[in-house]
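User: Fold this, then the next.

Assistant: Folding the first:
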Amino acid sequence: MSILVTNRREGTNRTDEILSAGQNAYGWSVHDWARERFEKSRVGRLATTTSAGHPHLVPVVFALVGNNVWTAVDAKPKSTRSLRRLANIQSNPRVSMLVDHYEDDWSALWWIRVDGDATVVSVDSEDGRLALSALAAKYPQYAAQAPPGPLIRIAVGKWTSWSAR
């Protein structure tokens, strides 16, 4: 059973939170608008926590496949391949990812956050190959040059969304 909490302020603003298993084919009772906007978003912000409890936030590209969000360590220049987000996930797999839309017309604002457990996955695994296909379908850069990996899989446990409309 899913729990849907809706908060409306004067009928214009809305916050929706979905906890536990839901009803649709993806296992979530998330509003269609939220899932569609999340899926079509080009960039998200991945939040992890260091072993000392400090927040760490990085922009990522991603693909939503079922109830999993996938992102990859790609070939863009980095100071090291031992990324903080990977170490953070090893010590604390609880993560959040936020996508949002901003305009000067504040009536068009919205955001969607997923919370879940992350795992680091090899690009050579069966799941890894499927994730790379989904990422390449969304991002032509990945079709031209596959990310060396590893991949991060977020098993979504909670959706939270807000829209000004």
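Now the next one, as you asked:
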Amino acid sequence: MPASCRPRCRRCATFIDAAKKGQITFAVFHILGPTIASLDEITETAAYLGDARYFTVKNFINNTHFFEWDEATHASYFKQVKDAIELVIPKLNEMATEQVELASVPYVTFIANKKQSGEPASYSFVLRGYVRHWLGNVWAEYDRINLTDIVAARAPTATVTKVQARG
């Protein structure tokens, strides 16, 4: 057990027990980087997951390139996590990202051309279009993995592609 978790072990155990009893839905969204070090985190995390839903997330927030792991490397990491599901968050245009951050509003508020106060804003029509398209792709990924069903603790309505150990 990592030293950082030891002071909270009782709380961690209570949380995991609540998930086992069906009192809460436990899902882990593991944001992966493009390195082996990021994959090593899977090993550390897997021991604590129990029956949690496990999602590996490739977030292309910048020009990150995720290498395709050879079969042996892939199997050595992903066999440790039962039924891991891969989620891919596409890259948003850098200028659009910057403008949303400068506006300090949620994506949907930016798309709606509103300020934090709810008053009309004058954000770029083109950048709002980029954000609208990107957000539509993100929501499509959420739909693909049945995120609403998972959060609502319902049985998934569709089959999703799972990352499975090869070999």
